[in-house]
Amino acid sequence: MIKRFLIIFILFLSKINSQSIVNERAKWFISDRFGMFIHWGLYSGAEGIWKGEKVRYNNDYAEWIQYRNQIEISEYLELSKRFDWENIDPEKWVLLAKKAGMKYITITAKHHDGFALWNSESSDYNIYNYSNPKRDIIKELSLACKKHGMKLGFYYSHWTDWEHPFSWDNSKEIYWLDKKNYNIYWQEKVMPQMKELLSNYGEISLIWFDMWLHHEETIVSKEQLFQLKNLIREMQPNCLINSRLGLSIDEDKDVDFRTLGDNQLGKYKYEYPWQTPATVAHSWGYNKNENEWKSTTSILRSLIGNVSLNGNLMLNIGPTSNGSVPYEIEKRFDEIGNWLSYYGKSVYNAGAFDLRNDLHDWGLTTYKKSKNGKKYVFLNIFDNQPGDIIKFTGITESPKKIKLLSKNSKIDLKFDFNTAVTSIKIPKKLPNPYVNVVEMEFNERPKVDLNLVAKTKNGGYALNYSNAMTKKGKSIINGSKRFGSIPFNIEVKDSLILKWKVFVEKPSCYSIDTSYNFQKKITNGYLSIEVNNEEFKHKLEYSGKTVGEPNQDWMIDRFHSFRLGQIKFDSPGFYFIELKIKANPQNPIQWQWLWLDEVVDKI
Ligand code: FHN
What we know:
Layout: H1 2-17, H2 27-32, E1 34-38, H3 43-46, E2 49-50, E3 53-54, H4 65-68, H5 73-77, H6 90-99, E4 104-110, H7 127-130, H8 137-147, E5 151-156, H9 179-199, E6 206-209, H10 222-235, E7 240-241, E8 258-259, E9 274-279, H11 296-307, E10 311-317, H12 327-343, E11 351-352, E12 363-369, E13 375-381, E14 389-393, E15 401-404, E16 411-412, E17 415-418, E18 421-425, E19 436-442, E20 460-463, E21 470-473, E22 476-478, E23 489-492, E24 495-504, E25 508-518, E26 526-531, E27 534-539, E28 545-547, E29 555-557, E30 560-569, E31 573-582, E32 589-598
């Protein structure tokens, strides 16, 4: 009994100590939401080309050119002569960030090449010694940030350093390096440089480490990482530390924010702070052959998408050797900043709403409690042709007001609230070409029904495994394969029962389709749907084969859509739809979805 109590108590403690809390010092981070990342260093002078050869390796990361193209340090340093030192002005980066609506900047104080962008006392391999006139870019940037009220953070490559003889430069996979020597690098470069960065440049908002493996898979030790972390906590207690420090959550519960993979957008709602580091194009450092520019719309959607799941976006620029940024960046940053100046309400100091973030097909929802105590639900509309009415499903009380945000003023919108669906009349021509924002106002955080599935713009209910309110029975979740030609599906070898809840606004009739793959011709397996006390039984049918990719010898099992029947809802209200699948281990079914489509003519 005591043992059981102890286990429960420990579990409870580990829960409150875990990253499920927002550290007090990270409050600004979850409010700011949007930051600038700067990758700039000697590599910017190479522009992704070395001696006429493009940077090796398919991912084209121009800041990796020294390593990829095997450049000797003496030759690499020659790149400093290509820089237009008279014209480089870090204040311009700060102004660009401000213009784009970004609230913090993180610069590569030292990237993997080991070259410091400040006048480092611990290593001569720094910009002060190789610029003319002598420059301390970190000092200049920190002053510019202070002047313009911009928070500043440093990227510091701790694990990897291609300059120090005892650091990890990946070729150590061939040339042996022991932990003792590695510790020399740690104690004579990492620790003193970090002390310099924390002492000489004012208040530092965050240190951004970049080890993408857990320390046990690397040469770095847990003790070294704690030594580094403790130094930061000691010298700048308010400075945030990201999860790429390299410790697991079990080892260190108070890493301040989690860093997702490069350009990896959020998929799930987390209660603790997290961030996507993203590029405007592909490379992080300036690459003159860059040709993969993301559009303004796509960047805004990424930002809003992350905010709708409680996350941040830190968008990277790779300035050139004269300090400027490509026109493609200027243009997009102008457009993004312009958008944020009118619609930033739904991003800054906003976060996830209680409902599923993929509930509606017109866009994504964010939520904010404003200083005046009012609660706002923002409908960020991605759809360019949403029609005259936007439907919001899931809030079960009427909003006080609904407005369309626009450049000059807010436009009051007419709306109709019905039990769990708010229908909002919107203008035929929406004001913004990228994303439009509708603001719903409430006195209190509105009540919601978490189980509902919203109707799509095309008049149907798309029911699948992830939006089911209950799931009973055993099944295997199969991710999509062969580049998605085999879709995500649920494999049932015995039985599975899924249940969904919908709100039907008026008497109406719906056809019912389901998609699955079943490869047997004779079976006693079946699938049945129960809606509104009516049952539709369907004997599993052989779904056949198809070709995934023409001329590639890709015969795959076919996922086919089968019509199950038609259902009539005589009155408005909540309805449950239950799907039962009965199969057996010899004849499994791979089930995909149910689709209820409104049959308008039949009413
Ligand atoms: O290797 C680096 C890369 O150059 C860049 O700095 C990115 C930014 O997140 N981080 C590493 C790869 O994950």
